[in-house]
Specification:
By secondary structure, the protein is an alpha/beta fold. It is built from 16 helices and 17 strands. The structure holds iron/sulfur cluster.
Length: 449
């Protein structure tokens, strides 16, 4: 069980030296107990105390890594129940289901979906990350052949699913170096699955009712197995969501370690209607699933799920930003027009899409305004003439241009005179459209087309 603040306090040096950033050791202990401080912040904790405190300072939901290298994925380590409290940490991993009863063409089609259905949005890569391989035949050799085949077709992580520990043992023997998640141990098979997990150093998923799960996780952690994922799916979607909430609440609010693990949920088994399955999977992403397994990741479903996931897992307190700098569109040259705007990612992507759509070669200066949009940055004193002019002059854009004309967003037309003064008489400031949607027409007119 997690330690209380007072129990932690008793293990601290009690010198109140303040080096951890807290006024007293007691304040630090309380924050540590609440998961709001790092043990490493106190340089004076003894090794003996560290060992006892590591439990208290561990994340209330363990982080579990599946796969290795660049394509590994971590689930868990969440700290809050609601996204608006802080932020969610490790985005739900989406897995595509592949069964050993499928034909070679079907398997290839699924892997193509996993490997190729990748999208970029506001600078982020959106994709599914795991292949969930299920033994439907009960034939260990057949399943092993599937695992070997898929291992060679994708560098993404693997989930191996069978009720039989013998089947899993055979399959792990050909892919342990990829650190797959083995799934799913029950009360009856927990010992056999734990032995495989320990020997092959792979994470293990367990399944059952909440009471069963508590019993199995306690048994496995006592045996030294730490990387556990919980499958608490029920026959009804309502009960599945209920279990997800119980697990998350127990781990975060009660610091109940036996449920302090990420979860896996099988949307693929909940309906035969593919569109409805995507809807159910989206609900599971919203309500705490660490991994969601789906039957298809064709473009409409993967885009819907990954955009939903992105919205849930971006930090609501930190705007998404672009790097400050010079951006090129449609192969500009020295005569191409120059525009300027702020580094709020949404502003950038809307403006850049319109410039691209205009097909007019152009330069775009993105200025660091701490992620504020044009009007907000202007009213906060970040996108104002005496800040913009030095940025333009130092940006190096003058070396690329044969002219000194710059277009500002229509919403800040009022700063054109001052901006002109700050830039100097050789520059000419023009006021562009207020709405990004009018940029193509504006640029085409400027280019005489
Ligand atoms: S750094 Fe350690 S000893 Fe100093 S006040 Fe913080 S908890 Fe106490």
């Amino acid at each position: 069980m997690a330690l209380t603040g007072i129990q932690i306090f008793k293990l601290l040096p009690k010198t109140n030296c303040k080096e951890c950033g807290e006024p007293t050791c007691l304040a630090f202990a309380m924050k540590l107990a609440a998961g709001k401080a790092e043990l490493a912040s106190c340089p004076y904790v003894s090794d003996e105390a560290k060992e006892q405190l590591s439990e208290a300072s561990a994340p209330p939901i363990r982080g579990v890594v599946i796969g290795t290298g660049d394509n590994s994925i971590k689930v868990g380590e969440e700290l809050v129940l609601y996204r608006h409290e802080k932020t969610f940490v490790n985005p739900t991993a989406i897995a595509i289901l592949i069964e050993d009863s499928m034909s070679d063409d079907e398997i290839k089609g699924k892997i193509d979906q996993l490997n190729n259905n990748t999208y970029e949005r506001v600078g982020l890569i959106l994709k599914a990350h795991l292949a969930a391989l299920r033994c439907k035949s009960g034939d260990a050799a057949k399943f092993k052949a599937l695992v070997e085949k898929v291992s060679g077709m994708t560098s993404d992580g693997l989930i191996l699913i069978s009720d039989s520990a013998d089947v899993i043992k055979e399959a792990v023997s050909v892919c342990a170096d990829k650190k797959p998640l083995i799934c799913g141990a029950t009360k009856d098979t927990a010992d056999a699955f734990a032995a495989i997990a320990k020997e092959s150093k792979v994470p293990v998923a367990i399944k059952g009712s909440i009471d069963d799960v508590i019993e199995i996780t306690q048994k496995m952690t006592a045996a030294g197995i730490k990387d556990i994922v919980i499958d608490a799916d029920e026959a009804s979607y309502k009960d599945t969501i209920k279990n997800q909430i119980i697990i998350r609440r127990a781990a975060l609010k009660k610091k109940f370690r036996p449920l302090g693990f990420p979860t896996i949920s099988f949307a693929c088994d909940m309906t035969d209607d593919k569109l409805f399955e995507t809807t159910l999977a989206a609900g599971l992403i919203n309500k705490y699933a660490g991994i969601v397994v789906v039957s298809e990741i064709d473009p409409p479903s993967v885009l819907a799920l990954t955009v939903n996931r992105m919205n849930i897992y971006t930090d609501p307190q930190r705007p998404m930003v672009m790097d400050q700098g010079v951006y090129e569109f449609n192969n500009p040259d020295a005569n191409s027009p120059l525009l300027i705007t702020t580094n709020f990612a949404l502003t950038y992507f809307i403006v850049s899409a319109e410039i691209e759509a205009s097909r007019v070669p152009a330069w775009l200066l993105i200025m660091d305004t701490e992620g504020m949009s044009v009007l907000t940055a202007w009213s906060a004193g970040k996108f104002v003439a005496d800040a913009m002019a030095p940025f333009v002059l130092k940006s190096g854009i003058s070396d690329k241009l044969g002219h000194k004309n710059i277009i500002i967003p229509g919403y800040v037309a009022q700063l054109s005179g001052e901006f002109q003064e700050e830039l100097g008489s050789e520059w000419e400031v023009a006021v562009g459209p207020r709405e990004a949607g009018d940029i193509p027409k504006y640029l085409r007119k400027l280019a005489g087309i």
